[in-house]
Specification:
This protein is an alpha/beta fold. Helix content is 35%, strand content 26%. The chain has eleven helices and 15 strands. The strands form two sheets. It has a nine-stranded mixed sheet with strand order 14-13-12-11-7-10-9-8-15. A hairpin with an 8-residue loop joins strand 12 and strand 13. Helix 1 crosses helix 10, helix 4 packs parallel to helix 5 and helix 5 packs antiparallel against helix 11.
Length: 336
Amino acid sequence: METIGIGVIGCGGMGRSLATSAHAVEGIEVVAVSDLQAELAKKLAEDLGAAYTLDYHELLADERVRAVLIASPPFIHGPMAVDAANAGKHVFSEKPMAPTLAACDAMIAAAADNNVKLTIGLVCRYHATHSAVREIVRRGELGAPVCMMVHRIGGPWRSGGHHTPWRLARAKSGGSLMEINAHEIDFMRWTCGDVAAVYAVGGQYIQQESDYPDVVLASLQFKNGAVGLLHSSHVSAVGGYGGRVDCEGGSIYFPQIWGGDATLQIKPFEGAGRRIKISEMQVPPPVQEEIRVFIDAIRNDTPPPITGVDGRAAVEIALAAYQSVESGQPVALPLS
């Protein structure tokens, strides 16, 4: 098997996760890492036996690096991805793709112009619950989807690693609907198809340090006629992550995505249905898997399963939700 050399840009928590996961995949060599914080870059490099630099342009100039994993703050994903593509490197960018559609479009164009692969780290597609729900819906076991509801809720960011200046600014992080809920938006679109319009309500109630809503209820109108509801929140002292899909012939219920006794319930209108414990679903480690399939796309010269178009779509839906909260009106897609 051909070994693919990669570089990692951003050595914080997410960058370390990507780097160590890549290091564990056969056929991948982490050649170099980069971060403006020397301590982070040096420690990760030492742990993986790689080189490190404080200037990611030096990493891009390394001929051993064929692909990069970008785990910087979202507002610099775009410039870094464009620089990487222009250097002839294949690009894996963490979600959100970028906080603006202009930046997303620049990433897509640079990848196309330089004939390199571009994928976005929407890793929930590789988690057991998400992939099982989508598979049941797409194979038509319960008929066409009618309504999908997902909630991902918790408390405010008041301390710890999340409480950083860039994370609290929507222009830099994309706000909760992008930085966190890019996963749920992508999950809903991946399951039910493209979105035609968004109507959302919400506001800023507790998390006053940020400049974006800490509660959003976003209603999605899918092009196929199905409807969806995303509940995003930073105001709940009792957190949760789960949902349901109601189809023409029955329902899929997942009150917990993972953890504890989380169970997936599949119930047709006719018949007994079944329950599956999430812990008994065997899937590869999700972060390793998202990197493996990206590298396989490079090795085999095939499109990656998650494209720049997918990453852009999640950003566009989030932007439409923000616009709807602000205007009080439904917002049609595509955005003008």
